[in-house]
Every structure is written in C-alpha cells, then in structure tokens.
Amino acid sequence: MSRLSWIKTALEVGVVTKKYPFERVEVPDGFRGLPIFDSGKCIGCTACANVCTPDAIKVVNDFTNGFRRIEYRLGKCIFCGRCADVCPVSAITITKEFELAYTGDVINAIEIKFIKCVQCGQYYTVSRHLKHVSSKLNDEALEGVDICPDCRRRSNINSLIHASGVFR
Amino acid sequence: MRSNIILGRGDLEVIEMLNKYLIDKIVGIRNVGDGKLIIDVKPNNLVDVVNVVTDKLGGIFVTIVGNDARSIDNSFHNIYVFSLDSLKTYLLIRVKLDPESPKINSITHIVKGADWGEREVRDLLGINMVNHPDPRRLILPDGWPEGINPLKKEFAHSIRPELNNSECYVPLRSDDVVALPYGPYHPLLHEPEYFELHIKGETVVGVEYRGFHVHRGIEKLGESRLTYNQVPFVAERICGICGFVHNVCYCQAIENAAKIEVPERAHYIRSIILEIERLHSHLLWLGVACHILGFDTGFMHAWRIREPIMNLAEALTGNRKNYGLNLVGGVRRDINKDSSARISKLLKDIKHEYDRFISSLTAVKEVIRRLEGSGLLPKPEAISYGVVGPVARGSALKRDVRVDHPYAAYKDVSFKVPTYSECDNMSRLMVRVDEVYESISIIEQLIDRLPGGSILAENAEVPEYREGFSGIEAPRGEDFHYVLTGRFSKVYRWRVRAPTYNNIPALKVMLHEVPLSDAPLTIASIDPCFSCTDRLLVFDVDKGKKFKVSYKALASGWKP
Amino acid sequence: MNIYKKSIWVFHLNTGGCNSCDIEILDVLTPYHDVERFGIKLVASPRHADALLLTGPVTKEILPKVIDALLAVPEPKLVIAIGSCTTGGGIWYDTYSTIGGLNELYKVLKEEYGVPEPSTVKIPGCPPKPESIIYGIALALGVVQQKVTTTTARVE
User: Fold this and answer.
1) Do B360 and A6 touch (CB under 8 A)?
2) How far apart are CA B430 and CA B11, in angstroms?
3) DSSP H stretches of helix in B82-214
4) Structural domain boundaries in chain C
5) Is the dihedral of CA A116, A121, A123, A124 positive or negative?
C-alpha cells in the first residue's frame, strides 16, 4: 500500500457530487419536511399545540372578536411530526418539502369562528370541534352541548338544588 | 420489604459486601431493577461510605444528582452515582440535606471526578460543599446574580435575570507561563469553548477550560414546561452528533422508573439506530482528526463514506440527524423488509470502502507519526479520573456499558470490545477504527434476528414519584440519565451526565509536556462534545495566581 | 439583495447550538455537496467573511462574543441563520440561559449598539438538510424565489 492508493481510490470512486440545485434531489418516503395545515379539515381541537415541544403551534383564543387562532411559526418548528401523529381528523400532512429558506417571518394561521352559548350569548367554543365531538356521542349525552360550561354548571347546580327540595 | 423485587446476581453480591463493610452506616436500601441499587446514608457518614465503595467495591464515580425534594420530604437530596463494573451494578448513594441551609462534605479529595459534579450542584441548587478546593462558579454565565439557583423549584424556567456585566471569568495560572487562548471561536473548534493553553517555550504545561457557552437550561426545561413524551425531543437536542443516545437513555430511565415493558422489536430498532449513529459519529471523528492533522484528503474521504449512512438514517427515521424516533415505551417507526435489505447492502459497501480508507490512511507515515506517542494517558491515571468510552479503552481499560450494564438488544449479540495499551492518540484512534467494524457486525446480527411484534408499549402509565436511571454506551463513552417522575405527567428531576464530562479532566494528564502543535489533536482525541457536557473545569498544574481577564481583552491581544 | 457579485466567503459561528446544524454545514463542504464549486468558502476569521452562518439559540454566556463577531464582519454583510434554534429560538425560546434566537439578538444589537438589522436569510430545519442550506444561500444571492409565505385562513 503506498500513498498513491488515495489517487487510485479517487479515480475508482469518481465524482459523487450531487447536481443540486440544478437538478432535483429525491427525498426518501417518510421524510419529515414542512407540515401543511388543511383549514378545511381543522376542527380547532388544539391537540397539535399540546404536543408541540418548541411551541411552534400556538393557540390564541380571541373571545372579543370571536375566533380561535391556531398559529404555526415556521421558524420555531423542529419538524418532529408529532402534530400530524395526534391530529384526530388528519388535517396536518407532513410533506417532503425541504426548500424552506425565507426572509422576515413566516406564520401560517387558521382562524376558526367561535359559536355563542344559547343561554348567555358568550363565545365559548368552535363549532367544528363541537360538531366533531357531537358526532361521536349518543343522544342522551348530547343534551346541553350548545350551552357553555359555565351555564351548564349553573343549570346542573340549579337542577340538583331543585331535586334535593331544599328551596321548594 | 425485599419480597417483591427482582435481584440480579450482582445485586446480591453488592448487598453482601455492603452488609460486611457498612452495616452500621446504611439507613435504607432499595432496588429499582436488575443491577440498580439505591442506598440511603446519613450525611456525616458519606465520606466513609464513598471510601469503602471506591476501595472495597471497586466503584468508579459516575456523577452527582442534586435534587430539590423540599416538596416531597422537606429536604435536598444529593445522590452519588457509582458504577461497579465487575459486579454489573450501578450503586446510588443518597444523602438527605437540611432544607434551610443545605451543606455536605466534599468528596473531591477522594474522587477527583467529583469536582465538577459538586460545583454544579452548588451552582444550580445552592448546596454548600464544605472543604471543596475551588470556590469559583461552574455553570452559570458570568455576572449571574448570587443566590439565584435555577434548579430550585421556586425558580421558573423562563426567568432571565439581569447579568452584571462587569464580572468576568478568572483563570488561574502561574507567573512564568505564557497563556495562549484557544477559542471561544477557533477554526479547529466547531463549538464555542475557551481553552487557555499555558506554555513554556513550545511545550504545554497546563490548560484551563472555560465551558458553559452552550448551557441552554435543558434539565430545567425538562422539569418545567414539558411533559414525558416531549422530553425525548429535547433530550435528542442535547447533542447533535450523538443525540439518539440521550433520547434512548432518557426513555429507558423513565421506563425503568415506571416499570414499562418495552416490546422486543422496539429494543432491536433502538439498538440498530444506536449503532448507525456510532458509525456516523466515528467516521465524522476520523475525518475531523485528519483535518486537524492537515490531511484534508482523509477528511474528504471519511465524510464521503459517511454520507450514505446519513442518507440511510434519513430513510429509516425521516431526518438525517435528530431522528425523533423514540417515545416512552417504544419507537414511532418500524423497519420494514425493504429497509433491512437496504441496510445489509449498504453495510457491505461501507465495509469495502472503509477497509480501503483505513489501509490507505495507515500508509501515510506523517499521520501515524503525529499520532504515535502523543497525548499519553497511563492506565492508573485513567482509572483515577474514571474516563469512559474510547479514551478508557485506548488506555487498556476494558469499560463498555454495552457489556457492563447490558441494555436494549445488546444482550443478544456478540461483539468484541477493542482495547489498546499504548495509551496514546494512536490507540484512541485505533479503538474507534475497530469499533466501526464491530458496529457493522452488530447491525448485521440485529437485522438477522429482528423479532416481530409491536413497536410501542400500549397504555404506558407513568406513576408519580418513582425513580429510575439508565446508562448507555455513546460513541464517546458512558451516558447516564436519572429521572424522578412527578405529577401531572411531568418529570420532577431529570439529570443528564454526558460522556465528555468525565473525559475532559483527563486532558490535564494528556496535555502535560506535549508540544504545542500536538495540543489541538490531543484535545480532539477525546472526541469532545461540548454541547453535551457544557461544564467548566480548571486545571492548574502549578498552583496559580488569579488573573482577571475579559473576553474583550483577549480579543484585542491581551497580555499577562 | 444581489450585492454579492463575487464568491461569498462565510464564517461559521455556533452560538450554543447542539452541533447537528454545524455538522451539516461541514457536510455541504464535503464531496457530496461541495459548495466550493459555487465559490463559497469557509474562512477562519469574521473579518475575511461576507456572510455569517449562525447556528444555535444564542446563550447568555456567548452573547457578547457573538455581537463582537457580528460587528467584525465588513459591510455589506449577510447573516444566514441556520436551524430552528436561531430562526425562532427553537425548543429553548424561553429558558433562563438563552436569549431566544435571532430576533432577540437583533433587538439587543439595535438597542445597545445602535446597529440596524443586517440582511438576513433564515433556513429552518432541525437540522436543515445540506440541500436546504444550499437553497438558502441561493435565496440570499437572489438566484431562486422564496417558496413559503405567510398565510391566514379564516373559516367558520
């Protein structure tokens, strides 16, 4: 073995350099690139925000203007794909996109309208989430889903008091 | 009390020996798994117990875990971790300290490696180390206000106190040496760290190290904002090169604490990815070593061979690094038949390429002459510093967590632990060279025997206030994680001890009397990973005088 | 942004990151990606550099050193922020010993030194693929168009 073996190796291996960016590169299946949020499917349940380790997905509840804002900050994302794992309606897809460089800030947001409680008239949840949950419940459990938790608690207490007969 | 616990053979031997030597000093004893013992002792007996453990039981110091347990039993805990390699057991010695003014005798005079651990506990928990030789700050940034200890539970992880900018780092050095700054940004360092080489003529006589530039508050973060299944992703980002090791180690510690049965297939997949990571890490190191020697041809070829391994990792896990594969209880992604075939084929190619690379590299006389005989670390010194990984094996110390404390699927495979007795940079290089072959063989065996079944334990529940720990052989040596589970699916205490933590102190020996031109290579020969370690250590060869030096002065050609 | 008519030389500055972005930066210099074919060269001093490759969330300990290095790069300078830690603070965006990424660094730069933001390209990823880094540099040079944009969808 002499030092010339390096030259021999180099000649045998040849050029390995990829042509990128003049040629597209193949990304393997299962590569975790940019997550895409389907605003048509999203029910605003915030499961993705709960598992997001760097808090790249954030939920802001705007009760005065009546919408829930689900914000995805590209700059913070670590591309772990946990959000797509936990999404109950598969609204998040992990794409193979890796050409993500940007200037300024990139924030993708979905704003979902709240609905109002039929009793007190306050915003309390997003209608899509309510519909999703309702579709999994039987009729008995569905009673009172259109009332906000506060009103429901109040009415429950009232009915308990009535049932106990203390204030007849 | 002992009726419902499993005791390994090693445990029984350890208990027998503890009964023999320390029967009157132990207050409590508990077993948290095969080869995992925790004993409680009174604070004033600690020094005696540590003496017995190191002398009679052959304990090698691993780390200190400090814990603010005031909300559990109104005391601070200090846990001293020892590895009893020959008995295949980890022995943890716990002392409970006063909640108001916690203090404990230092054990640094018995165990040299305890220096860092004790100062870390003092910095982060405010526990007073009586008789500790070095009163300086270890972890927190210069100018951090006195009396604020980040790991105390009343400190919220997001508080950012104002720093006092006039305070600066104080190196120790004697008058008759020249101080040569190496860092914080230096072409041969990829991470911001500051070494101050003390030279007489052309010879290095001492070195000072100011780390902690990469201290990101990971342990606190894991204990505050995050839940169990979020911590693996943070653990992975402790280190970008051997991150999967931390990831697995954390998960195994939690699984040990919660007694979760991990499916066999998950164990195998973890081991395969761990070995793939070792392959990439060792090739990376070989390349960097060539680069430091000025032999860039070797660097380019090593990295060329490494690239298909990165692509393989990407195909298996979805990312080239920071794989994000683990959850508590198993793994997220399976290895299918196509992937196994691909791995086998790739390993063959790599073996061929690697053979050619190594035989060409060893034919370059200049490289070999630079490596041989430089950076000596004799075996007795290696034992006293408790070095780990290739550094230990390069000094004829046969230490390997995969053999000493088997985990994941390593009990099912056979492999050699390469050791070399020349104790120089060359033997550390040769250990890594041989380990690449062993890793390839381990992956082949694992792929052949990959069992079927699920990959994630179902309904993994984590109970409150249970403790567990785990050790793993990282490419750089032993990695150790300790966890105490808490309430509301959060970790109460999470302690990480990265391999470089134990190896850096030994640089004092390796760098003594070496020519200056060999110093960068010798520093690189321990394969330092500062983002893992990020601690500060000072070695003063001659007892030094104190100087104040700011980084600004350094930048503008500061002179002593 | 096309102020760099000639080859750009880069200085690599790790501000407390985990290393994975740093090894990917080294990776783009090795045979498979070889950015030296575009004239991009890693230099040993910020004074020789046109662009600064920043990785890491900027820890408190390293902050003054980063600012010094940033100010040492001659004008017109370009900052290429690589990895999620730098672009948005990453996982450590709110911990006690970091300042939380590039935006906070620019705030400090503006408030304490009166220096305006240098032109910046951010490459998210944890770590970004070597190809992403090449794409980011191409974006900085004005060769390609930005693909990702801010969107807001309002639904019922």
Assistant:
1) yes
2) 34
3) 114-125
4) 9-140
5) negative
Which one of B169, B186, B190, B234 would you mutate to disrupt binding with C, by most C Cβ within 10 Å of its Cβ?
A: B190
Choosing from B106, B140, B156, the residue where a domain stops is B156
CA distance B308 to chain C (A): 10
- Give dist(CA A106, CA A124) in Å, integer: 29
Judge whether B411 lies within some domain: yes
DSSP, collapsed to helix, strand or coil, labels residue B411 as helix
Inter-chain residue contact B216 with C32, CB threshold 8 Å: no
Q: Which residues of chain C are within 8 Å of residue B218 when distances are taken between CB atoms?
A: 92, 95
**DSSP state string for B342-365:** HHHHHHHHHHHHHHHHHHHHTT-H
Does B152 share its domain with B222? no
- Residue of C12, C48, C61 for testing the chain B interface, max B β-carbons within 10 Å: C61
B50: containing domain: 9-156
Domain-located, residue B556: no
Which residues, at least 6 apart from B413, have a Cβ–Cβ distance to it below 8 Å?
Answer: B271, B442, B445, B446, B449
C-alpha torsion angle, residues B219, B225, B231, B233 (rounded to 10):
-110
- B357–A53 C-beta distance less than 8 A: no
Q: What is the CATH number of the domain that holds B53?
A: 3.30.460.80
A26-143, what's its fold?
Alpha-Beta Plaits (3.30.70)
Contact in structure between B207 and B195 (CB atoms under 8 Å):
yes
CATH assignment, C9-140: 3.40.50.12280
Same domain assignment for residues B138 and B261: no
Cα(B37)–Cα(B64) distance, integer angstroms: 15
In a domain, B209, yes or no: no
- Domains: count for chain B: 2
Q: Which positions in chain A have a beta carbon within 8 angstroms of at least one beta carbon in chain B?
A: 1-3, 5-6, 9, 13, 16, 28-32, 51, 53, 78-82, 85
Query: What sections of B362-417 are H helices per DSSP?
Result: 365-371, 379-385, 389-393, 401-404
Q: Rounded to the nearest 5 degrees, what angle is found at the Cα of A12, between the Cα atoms of A8 and A16? A: 120
Q: How far apart are alpha carbons B494 and B221 in whole angstroms? A: 10
Which residues in chain A have Cβ-Cβ distances shorter than 8 Å to C139? 101-103
**Residue in A20, A102, A112 closest to C122 by CB:** A102
ipTM above 0.85, yes or no: yes
- Interface contact C126, partner B, CB < 8 A: yes
Answer yes or no: is B540 within a domain. Answer: no
Task: Find the CB nearest A112 among C93, C131, C155.
Answer: C155
The full set of domain ranges for chain A reads 26-143
| B130 and B23 co-located in one domain | yes
Let me know whether B147 and B251 are in one domain: no
With H, G, I as helix, E, B as strand and everything else as coil, classify residue B191.
coil
Inter-chain Cβ pairs, chain A and chain C, closer than 8 A: 134
B142/C61 touch (CB, cutoff 8 Å), yes or no: yes
- Tell me the whole-structure pTM to 2 decimals: 0.89
Sequential pLDDT tens for chain B (560 residues) = 333 445 566 677 888 888 888 778 888 888 888 888 888 888 888 888 888 888 888 888 888 888 888 888 888 888 998 888 888 888 889 988 888 888 888 888 888 778 778 888 888 888 888 888 777 777 777 677 777 788 888 887 777 777 766 656 666 667 777 888 777 777 667 777 777 788 888 888 877 777 667 777 788 888 888 888 888 898 888 888 888 999 999 999 999 988 888 999 999 999 999 999 999 999 999 998 888 888 888 999 999 999 999 999 988 888 888 888 888 888 988 888 888 888 899 999 999 999 999 998 888 888 888 888 888 888 888 887 888 889 999 988 888 888 888 888 888 899 999 999 988 889 999 999 999 999 999 999 999 888 888 888 887 788 888 889 999 999 988 888 999 988 888 888 888 888 888 888 788 888 888 888 888 888 888 877 666 655 333 333 333 333 333 444 433 333 33
